[in-house]
Design a protein that fits this description.
By secondary structure, the protein is α/β, with parallel strands linked by helices. The chain has 10 helices and 10 strands. 37% of the residues lie in helices and 19% in strands. Bound molecules: ligand BV8 and zinc ion.
Length: 254
Amino acid sequence: MAECAPIPDELTDALTAAGHVVVLTGAGVSAESGVPTFRDAQTGLWAKHRPEDLATPQAFARDPALVTRWYDERRVTLASLAPNDGHRALVDLQRWMTSRDRQFTLLTQNVDRLHHAAGSEGVVELHGTLWVWRCESCGEEQEERGGPFDSHPLACECGGLRRPGVVWFGEMLPPSALEAAERAIQSCDVFISIGTSAVVYPAAGFAQAAKARGARVAEFNREPTPITDLVDWSVQGLSATTLPELVRRLQADS
Ligand code: BV8
Ligand code: ZN
């Protein structure tokens, strides 16, 4: 068992008393499943591209085959990966809350659906998902769970180009997801930010918004981020270790 940063008693007390807990996750929660985090997703062939240069509508317009190849490689990599103990701890946390008739909302910036695979329910996908591809022209959406695409870019029957169902930089978040996130932030008692560098908006502003409304805020991350100074509790460590420890403490205390 890796060394685990202590879980503050005040945090477990706040969670035990909370009527609504909101969790926001980023790439860090999938890192121990083998999913490259967003900012070190550039290995090998992709070392020469910055993610921000590939994850944009402009990049896709300029070179749809390059962008499709990048996303297809990430999609195929994901197919062989599984949820880790951190994902499973969040399922346990959701069940611990709902078994006490309390509210739990999981917001994720991740596009890998590992939370769904672990058993989380009602996951709010702020940035879409890599598993669904959408035609730019007719809007037809299809889940793509097979092997690598045999041609790039992907053509739709209508003749249009099919793109990954993710939110690119400069694109609006899905209105239903953003509304769900804003509603949850407005009513939560505790907000927990997990495995995110807190640099991409609007998600990076959620912790501040929750704090401004009077919620208590915790951060579970491997290293400090721009929100570390504003949170009530910062638990540094690997989420596949720190999250199961959090759940163990809650179950022991209740
Ligand atoms: C929007 C999907 C309104 C795609 C992603 C100028 C022009 C246009 C827009 C902007 C602009 N300036 C600012 C903006 C807004 C922009 C933005 O915030 N840019 C940033 C870079 C400044 N945001 C947007 O464009 C958003 N839309 O604002 O619409 C609008 C419209 C038009 C014009 C203006 C505004 C859309 C943002 C969504 C982009 N899509 N992903 C894809 O996957 O390819 S973002 C991508 O990066 C991820 O999805 C994630 O959301 C984001 C951040 O990544 P993280 O998840 O945090 O991962 P990262 O690697 O960064 O960090 C991992 C963390 O985990 C680290 O801290 C690490 O220490 C930790 N960690 C690692 N391992 C572990 C761990 N912790 C614990 N345990 C471990 N084992
Ligand atoms: Zn089409």
